[in-house]
């Protein structure tokens, strides 16, 4: 049980982290209002859990659709469930080529992908990508699960705060949420709850909501010689803010930080990240205003305000299209006509709307993830090679983001998944060569391969130039190490290592081929010698000829 000082410190740090987060809240609220109305429940009213409409500020949904495309594109491009997106290595090329090591790494990779597919990992990752695109920061807590090995609890912006010890890596997560009295008693036990919660439970008020604080932070006062949950590297504490004394709901721990907290990009010492939606927010708000003004202009043109003579004040006229209203008009000034003329050329407004939509799609990388569909629609004659070249050019813009997501979210995900599998006892025994070796993670997703494939352009130009020169000077091909070229190309393109023959096996194949060729040459020479001997044996030496002349000369 925590002492009163530690409990007080957790509550004070919770308030300090909320104070640091407060400057980001107004920006997040605008993004929720215009681009992601169902996210960030903690940033909205107390009735956020109800099903009323929350998209009243959205007239044109271009921003909503672009944000959805960004989340789906990142999910399909970085962590597609249908394709391998990571592989394990030892960072030792010779060890990686060992047949037993390669097979063990392959089996563990397949097992990890199966665990992720059976759990809610991919659903949580998709949520994280959308949170990243919208708010620049995402968080999901990975918990052990008896049936699925691991389970994710994705969080939305506003219900958590994060902190770091060195200003770079997130190592602390606090979150505030509510639980019903019944949920608290079932999870933590009747005795662990506060007097107020126990009284509500005894009175049968099971559905009353109670605030709870969950703190995950490094444990600096632990005894490293002990292995129990209360001496692990990270502390996990659930407590009621209004509980009496030093009472907590539970205290446990983790050997590794269980939360995956990633940022899109950061500036300086910012703990929270900036997002593409923040870049597009001005255009999204402009688009809503322009759509509102366009609708008003159409209303003025189709149903303009009228002026009429006073004699018609108490009469009803037929104002429908084609309707007739009979009026005695001594003068034209008493005619029914528009109060003012509205003649707006909507073509210019539509062109500007299209330009604003294009800026939104560009800020949210829609033109990258939907490039094939868009380019073929704009230019049907564009070839696949041209599309690929433009796609690789666009990929360079995502390079820094991919590196950050690999380091802050996907690498920790692979590591924590492997740790949960070891705890569950489902990892096969490692071969002796791997004892005491550290494993590394390489990413081979579609986006990662596209980033790495950009480096093959210079190699392609070099090989093509050598081929052209070799037509007139074949010895120039001696400058090309074909084996190194094949390995480099396979690595850059993310070719599965199972289909690339290892160097040792290639040497053995070449040795066997050389032996077979030597044996075939010897057999051919022996056959040729035997044929010559047979021909010589059939020559008549009783008569003068070339053979008898040679024999006499030899004598």
Offer a quick outline of the entry:
50% of the residues lie in helices and 13% in strands. It is α+β, with helices and mostly antiparallel strands.
Helix and strand topology:
Layout: H1 4-21, H2 25-34, H3 62-78, E1 86-89, H4 93-96, H5 99-118, H6 121-135, E2 137-145, E3 149-155, E4 160-164, E5 170-180, H7 181-188, H8 195-202, E6 209-218, E7 234-239, E8 250-254, E9 259-263, H9 276-302, E10 306-307, E11 337-338, H10 346-363, H11 366-369, H12 371-378, H13 384-424, E12 440-443, H14 446-453, H15 456-470, H16 482-492, H17 503-537, H18 546-554
Antiparallel strand pairs: 1-12, 2-3, 2-9, 4-5, 5-6, 6-7, 7-8, 10-11
Helix pairs in contact: 2-9, 3-6, 7-8, 9-10, 13-14
Overview of this protein structure:
This protein is an alpha+beta fold. Helices cover 50% and strands 13% of the residues. It contains 18 helices and twelve strands. The chain has helices at 4-21, 25-34, 62-78, 93-96, 99-118, 121-135, 181-188, 195-202, 276-302, 346-363, 366-369, 371-378, 384-424, 446-453, 456-470, 482-492, 503-537, 546-554; strands spanning 86-89, 137-145, 149-155, 160-164, 170-180, 209-218, 234-239, 250-254, 259-263, 306-307, 337-338, 440-443. A five-stranded antiparallel β-sheet has the order 4-5-6-7-8. A hairpin with a 5-residue loop joins strand 4 and strand 5 (170-180). Helix 3 crosses helix 6 (121-135), helix 7 (181-188) packs across helix 8 (195-202) and helix 13 crosses helix 14. The protein is flat.
């Amino acid at each position: 049980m925590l002492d009163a000082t530690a409990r007080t410190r957790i509550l004070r740090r919770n308030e300090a982290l909320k104070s640091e987060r407060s400057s980001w809240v107004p920006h997040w609220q605008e993004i929720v209002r215009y681009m992601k109305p169902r996210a960030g429940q903690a940033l909205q009213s107390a009735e956020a859990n109800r099903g009323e409409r929350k998209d009243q500020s959205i007239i044109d949904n271009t921003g909503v659709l672009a944000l959805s495309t960004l989340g789906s594109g990142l999910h399909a491009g970085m962590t597609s469930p249908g394709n391998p997106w990571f592989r394990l290595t030892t960072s030792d090329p010779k060890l990686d080529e060992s047949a037993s090591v390669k097979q063990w790494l392959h089996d563990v990779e397949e097992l990890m992908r199966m665990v992720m597919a059976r759990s809610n990992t991919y659903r949580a990752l998709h949520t994280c990508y959308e949170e990243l695109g919208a708010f620049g920061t995402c968080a999901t807590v990975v918990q052990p699960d008896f049936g699925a090995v691991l389970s994710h609890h994705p969080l939305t912006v506003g219900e958590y705060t994060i902190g770091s010890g060195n200003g770079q890596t997130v190592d602390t997560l606090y979150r505030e949420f509510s639980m019903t009295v019944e949920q608290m008693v079932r999870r933590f036990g009747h005795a662990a709850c506060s007097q107020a919660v126990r009284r509500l439970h005894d009175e049968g008020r099971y559905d009353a909501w109670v605030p709870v604080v969950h703190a995950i932070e490094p444990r600096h006062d632990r005894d490293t010689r002990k292995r129990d949950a209360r001496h692990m590297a990270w502390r996990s504490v659930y407590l009621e803010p209004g509980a009496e004394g030093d009472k907590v709901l539970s205290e446990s721990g983790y050997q590794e930080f269980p939360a995956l907290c990633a940022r899109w990009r950061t500036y300086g010492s910012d703990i929270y990240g900036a997002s593409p939606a923040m870049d597009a927010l001005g255009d999204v708000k402009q688009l809503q205003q322009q759509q509102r003004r366009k609708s008003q202009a159409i209303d003025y043109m189709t149903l303009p305000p009228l002026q009429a003579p006073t004699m018609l004040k108490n009469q009803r006229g037929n104002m429908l299209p084609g309707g007739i209203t009979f009026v005695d008009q001594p003068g034209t000034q008493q005619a029914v006509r528009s109060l003012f003329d509205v003649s707006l050329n909507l073509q210019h407004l539509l062109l500007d709307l299209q330009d604003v939509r294009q800026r939104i799609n560009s800020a949210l990388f829609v033109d990258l993830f939907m490039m094939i569909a868009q380019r073929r629609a704009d230019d049907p004659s564009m070839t696949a090679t041209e599309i690929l070249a433009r796609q690789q050019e666009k990929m360079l813009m995502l390079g820094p983001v991919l590196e950050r997501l690999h380091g802050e979210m996907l690498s920790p995900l692979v590591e924590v998944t492997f740790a949960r599998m070891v705890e569950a006892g489902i990892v096969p025994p490692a071969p002796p060569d791997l004892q005491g070796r550290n494993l590394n993670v390489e990413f081979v997703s579609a986006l990662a391969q596209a980033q790495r494939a950009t480096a093959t352009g210079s190699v392609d130009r070099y090989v093509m130039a050598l081929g052209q020169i070799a037509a007139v000077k074949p010895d120039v091909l001696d400058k090309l190490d074909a084996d190194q070229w094949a390995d480099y190309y396979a690595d850059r393109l993310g070719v599965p290592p199972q289909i690339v023959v290892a160097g040792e096996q290639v040497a053995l194949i070449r040795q066997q081929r050389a032996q077979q060729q030597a044996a075939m040459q010897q057999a051919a020479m022996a056959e040729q010698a035997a044929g010559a001997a047979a021909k010589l044996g059939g020559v008549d030496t009783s008569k003068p000829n070339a053979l008898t002349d040679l024999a006499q000369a030899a004598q």
